[in-house]
Amino acid sequence: MVSTTLRKIVSPCWRPSVENEGQNSGRGDDLGCRVDGLWWYKDLGQHVHGKFSMAVIQANNVLEDYSQVESGPMSLEALGPQGTFVGIYDGHAGPEASRFISDYLFDNIKRYTSENQGMSADVVNKAYLATEEEFLSVVEKQWLIRPQMASVGSCCLVGIICSGVLYIANAGDSRAVLGRMDRSLKEVQAVQLSTEHNASLSSVRDELRSSHLDDPQIVVLKHKVWRVKGLIQVSRSIGDAYLKKTEFNREPLLPKFRLPEPFQKPILKAEPSILVQKLNPEDQFLIFASDGLWENLSNQEAVDIVTTCPRNGIARKLVKAALCEAAKKREMRYSDLKKIDRGVRRHFHDDITVIVVYLDYPLISRNSFREPVISVRGGGDANT
Question: pTM of the prediction?
C-alpha cells in the first residue's frame, strides 16, 4: 500500500518485522529506539518544546497501533511556524488504517497549514477529513481483491504545540491528559483534554440517537457492552468504510460486518472533536495514550506516576503500571503475564501506546528554534 522507498523516507524509527523481534530496529538505534520482545520504546528524546518519551506493548497477533512524534516545521513554507506534532493511532480489524494515518496525516497538516498561512482548528479538521478520503480511496481501489480493507479502521488522537497554543484533536477513544501544577494545593492535577467517542458513554449514545432518529438500533447493548449497530464501540474513526459508505457493506465483505439493510448516511464520522487553548507556565506535561492504558489507570494515577518518576523511560513506566493492574484484575502476577505471547495476550490487555510530552515553558514562549528536526515513528510491522 505504501512503497518501500516512501517508508524508508518517513520511518526513521520503525518497528522491525515479527521475525526480527528482540533485535534493535536498524536506523532506530541511532535515535535511541529499541525493540525488546513485545516492547517498542524510546525512553527519552528532545522536541522543540522539551523532552518526550514513547512506549508500545503488543497484545494482538499483529500490532495494530502506530504512533509518531514530529518536531520542527509545521508547514511546507521555509519561514512557516515551528512546533511539535504527536499522534496516537489505535487500529482495529488490522493495522492498515493506523499505518496509513501515520504515513499521511502529518503531511496533510503541513499542507493545510501552508494553504491557510498558519495553524488552526480548521487546518486540523481538514487534515483529518483529507486523510479519511485518501484511505477510503485506497479501500475502493482494493475492494475486489482485498474487501476486508473496508472493515479496517483506526482511532486518531493528535496533539499539536504551535506558537504557544495547544491543539488536541480526537476521533475515537484514545485520550490526552494534561498534568497541571495547582499552586494553591502545591500538587500536579490531571486535566483531561480530549473528548472520547465510545458507545459506552451515555453522551455518545445520545449523540448517535439524535443524528439517526430513524434507526432505533443505532446503538445495541450486546454482551453487556454498548456497540454502534452491535458491531463497534467507537462512533468516530478514520477508515471503517463499511459503516461510512453503503457500497462497502455488501459481498464480498465478510458476513459478520454486513448490515441487513442499506443505510442512507454514514453511521460513523471521521470529524475530530478539537480543543484549542494557550499553554501557561503551570502546564507541566501531556500524556497521550490509547484506551488500553486508561482501562487500567485513572487520569490522576497516570499523572502521579509521571510527576514522581524520572523522565527517562517514563512512558514504559506507565505501560508497566497498566500491565500490573491488568494482571491484578486476573488474579495473576505481572511476572506471569510477561510470559504470555502475543495473540493470547489480547485476552488480558489491549495493544497499549503511550507518549509523554514534557512542556518547557521558556521554550514554548520563545519565537526561534534551533533544535534539529525530528521524526520518530513507533509501532507496527515494517514488512506488512
Answer: 0.90
